[in-house]
Amino acid sequence: MSKPVTFITGCSDGDIGAALCNGFIAKGFIVYATACSVTAMSDLTHKNVRKLAVDVTDDVSVANGITQVYAETEGTDVLVSNAGYSHIGEGAKVIETNFFGFVRLVQHVVPLMAKRQHGTVVAIGSILGEMATPFQGFYNASKAALHSYTDTLRMECRPLKLKIVLVAPGSIKSNISVKSAYTVPADSLYKSFEKQIKHVMFQSQTKDFGVMSMDTNEFATIVVGKVISPKPPQYLTLGGFSTKMWILQWLPRTAAQGLIWSMAQKEPKPGTYGPM
């Protein structure tokens, strides 16, 4: 019997996707690991890894990647849409990557999965898709759209016998903030908030505000175990601040946003807000 196959986006070294690759490999999968550049995945060296250069913002690139997988295997058993971007100053690219990147994958993979009436689609969202925080409007919006689209997809895929899983991570240690280094423009209305803005970007990598970032490998192990179970959950949230965010959703919205703003506007501790 051939090994099961998973296709994962956003697998650059140090990212969540790379850890997910190792998690699926440990469970006996053949993993098609993708990133914009193959050289960005140098740490993935296992014999069961197949590296592909795929840009989720490019329809042709996505189509070519999926075509290669189906030419070499019986089909994708698990699709994981993990590629993400969070640069505050590049709103269009954030939405194009985080939301439309997933849409492209779905358009190319779901019809092929449907032919076999077999497959699991995993969307890596964010707790910020449930409850927004200041200074990350486009990122919040992209993840909220992703969550809504995933919920819709789950209903529409019921007659196709496909499973749809939405994962909403909290603070997970990764390189996403480092890749999104940002300097507030000199003429910005929020120049005086530069430290706070950068802290919001980097707080997933710190222990400030009571946030304990979850180890990337621990996160991947839990997610993979849930995804490949006979009855994977429709929704899974874990990581630093995920419990607090869940509680905030039960408060009146005005009160919840007031608490979030009070935390976000505090002067952060030195060393907790990335490079200045």
Automatic annotation (TrEMBL):
Gene Ontology cellular component list: endoplasmic reticulum
Source superkingdom: Eukaryota
One annotated GO molecular function: oxidoreductase activity
Keywords linked to the UniProt accession: NADP, Oxidoreductase
SUPFAM superfamilies tied to this protein: NAD(P)-binding Rossmann-fold domains (SSF51735)
UniProt family annotation: Belongs to the short-chain dehydrogenases/reductases (SDR) family.
Listed name of the protein: NAD-binding protein
Record organism: Mycena albidolilacea
